[in-house]
Here is the input.
Amino acid sequence: MPENLDNRKRKILQAIVEEYIETSEPVSSGSLVQNEELNCSSATIRNEMAELEQIGFLEKPHTSAGRVPSQKGYRYYVDELLREDNLSRKEIEMIREMMETKVNRLEDLTKIATTTLSEITHYTTIAIEPNVSNHTIIDIKFILLGTRVLMAVILTDSGIIRESIIKFDEDLTQEQIDDLTYIFNNKLVGKPLEKIDGPIEEYIVAEMKTGIKIIEKIIEEINKLLEDSKTYIKGANKVIDMPEFKKQDMAKDFLNVIDAKDIIADVINTGMAKDINVYIGSESEREELKNFSIVTFNHLLDGKDIGTIGIIGPTRMDYSKVISVMKYISKKLNDDYKKGKF
Amino acid sequence: MPENLDNRKRKILQAIVEEYIETSEPVSSGSLVQNEELNCSSATIRNEMAELEQIGFLEKPHTSAGRVPSQKGYRYYVDELLREDNLSRKEIEMIREMMETKVNRLEDLTKIATTTLSEITHYTTIAIEPNVSNHTIIDIKFILLGTRVLMAVILTDSGIIRESIIKFDEDLTQEQIDDLTYIFNNKLVGKPLEKIDGPIEEYIVAEMKTGIKIIEKIIEEINKLLEDSKTYIKGANKVIDMPEFKKQDMAKDFLNVIDAKDIIADVINTGMAKDINVYIGSESEREELKNFSIVTFNHLLDGKDIGTIGIIGPTRMDYSKVISVMKYISKKLNDDYKKGKF
DNA sequence: ATTAGCAGTCAAAGAAATAGATTGCTAAAA
DNA sequence: TTTTAGCAATCTATTTCTTTGACTGCTAAT
Here is the structure.
């Protein structure tokens, strides 16, 4: 139910959210009178604020304090009041510079984007490799590294490369490797990299020259590759300067969340395929995250998911700035891609 | 100059360090009287403590507080007074269990050891891949992943595998790859992986079929591989429960150190090749680390450095326990290695 | 519908008082 | 000479009380 606020209430809510984001202090009616767009006295504002609190957009830490946006207030702000925060020329310059580095791997590009995002926004940034299971296999290579050590390299259409090293208890011959390469490529190229469990038998039957054990082990390892998606964190130290982390509990919760990156990965992976997702406080439905907000963007190239980058910070987050920077970086990645930068 | 303390002073210093490590409260003369080994009154202990302070082994936070070990005090303790802390059966069981996982890569083994160490000691653990430059090359493979994308895989005698993906502006043929493989193997196998810059020309001259540019690029990428050693951190959240991190500054310093892992990598890499190194406070000669201690061990297999694992925590660290656990894990890794586990 | 004005509320900051821990010193005892 | 008992002095941590100042909410006038 998208509540309808009259114009003045919208302006007041917006002003409160923005001032609070900037100062981290509860906002008083008095300080809002200064706002040019609001041509009324503090008493009027107080009345409006009381109503906004009534319907759940604002909260009061205590009777004689100013107001603070509630989670619902932030949500309304993000959905309805957010204005594009234009990046300064300096910031754009900085982003350009940082992202200029040449890379050979998509993975490295993600790292760079993560670092850039953290530097510019001053929040902690997390990158998560995509779930590759719906990516299409372009090629599979097997390389014998020792008599009993095999390396499997899988290429997908999205440019993501995964490799795995597999050890066996028996010697492998080059002939076997050639067989494997032939069969796996034959059966899997052009298909999505879904878990290969159902039709395993089929492959095995089709191919008895190289023992069942070997094939089973290879499939097992390939499946493992699909499961673990790497995560990178940058700027975990950024939070320390934020006033909310003066509270021991917040700091503790934050470090715990960072250490168990899966928590965030979970949230990110359950997200919709919108380009930008915003989870405010308990919206992420994880107890540990109820005091934090997460903003993510799915990095799509040619419609393929090639990874998600997320920012985590207090609910009092500069959503406007974060979203603007994300959009810019996202666009830049796409442009670079089209120019064939990688 | 290894100062000589009489027996009673040694006992007192030891008792103070151990009690302080346990409680994190300054130790008073009164609480030491309880110690059975010390058969004297609190007044006597006070006199001894005054002398220990005189010669720099103890410090006083303020006049009416107990004593705290100084950095020099910790150093003496570690060098002279440390007693082997026998691990409980439960801990040994836990280590065994955690390290049972089968791995294919040395890298994964390091990760597991890192996690185990952090779980058992309750400190933050950092693993750093070794500098492979003095490792001997066993094999070099080149795999064509696309017409312009090459993967180079380097195997060393220590079992460490490094791979790199290299992109070119022109198409590569399989024939060229075969050439490259032949030449690189011919020239490099059996040699240490030192930076390949001096005799580059030689290779190039020996081989004109595949353009100079390609070779240059490959060498460049291989050199990059040598430089960047990966680091893993586990248990960064462990510190939050330690009383010293109640102080904002400590927490800030810690997060900064963790974020710029290079700082620690630096310290670790400049260490001697002793099996276990202990850096107490400013001994690490980095301003950022003056309030922290680092204990590292070089993981050697067959005399080859295959990585370093370090623990970082406050100077009030349970050195005895940390060192005992490290020794145990180190031994276990070696045993497993001899049994051919990897 | 708006606003001026004022009483009421509460946290945060400061000041003062208190309690408690521990030392250092002195003089007596061993 | 070494050890110890005892006590004054020191300083932190805790508690309590007071003061200040920032807001709000309400009422009555505009």
Observations:
- The mean pLDDT of chain B is 86.
- The beta strands of chain B are 58-59, 68-69, 124-128, 137-144, 149-156, 161-167, 231-234, 276-280, 292-301, 304-314.
- Chain B has twelve helices and ten strands.
